[in-house]
Design goal:
The chain is 73% helix and 0% strand. With 139 residues, it is mainly alpha-helical.
Length: 139
C-alpha cells in the first residue's frame, strides 16, 4: 500500500506568491505590459477623442506588432551588445538600462504629442518605439 503525500492547502499554494523573488518577477511582468497598454488601447481612445480619421486609427493597431513578433528578433538582440552600456554593465544589464532610457524618452514624447497638431506619423513612431522597448524589459 502506497502512502500519498498530504495535499497542500490553498494558503500554502498562495504563500508561494509572497516570496520576494516571485514578487519581483510578478511586478516586472506587470510593469513590462503597461507601456504596451499605453501605446495600444489608450492611444487609440485618445486619437478617437481627437477626431482622427478612423483609417488612421485602425493602422495604429499595428503598434503591438514588435511585441507580437518578439520570438523572432529577441534571439538576435540577445546576441548583440547594447549601444553605450554593454562595456560597463554587461550585455543584459546594458540592454536593460538602454531600453529604459529609450522607453522613458518615447513615453515622454507620446505624452507631449498632440494628435491635432503633430503628424500621426510622429505619434506612430513614438508608439512603435514604446512597444519595441517595452518587450525588452519584460523579456
Amino acid at each position: 500500500m502506497t502512502v500519498l503525500p498530504a495535499r497542500a492547502s490553498f494558503a500554502d499554494a498562495a504563500a508561494l506568491y509572497l516570496r520576494p523573488r516571485v514578487l519581483i518577477v510578478l511586478f516586472l511582468g506587470f510593469s513590462a505590459g503597461l507601456p504596451l497598454a499605453l501605446s495600444g488601447s489608450t492611444l487609440l481612445v485618445r486619437m478617437a477623442e481627437a477626431d482622427i480619421d478612423l483609417r488612421t486609427i485602425g493602422l495604429f493597431a499595428f503598434v503591438g506588432t514588435p511585441y507580437t513578433l518578439k520570438f523572432l528578433w529577441a534571439p538576435v538582440v540577445d546576441a548583440l551588445d547594447a549601444p553605450l552600456f554593454s562595456g560597463a554593465l554587461g550585455r543584459r544589464r546594458g540592454w536593460l538600462v538602454f531600453s529604459q532610457i529609450v522607453l522613458i524618452a518615447a513615453i515622454v514624447l507620446l505624452g507631449l504629442c498632440d494628435p491635432f497638431s503633430v503628424s500621426p506619423l510622429v505619434v506612430a513612431i513614438a508608439a512603435l518605439v514604446v512597444a519595441a522597448t517595452a518587450w525588452r524589459l519584460g523579456g
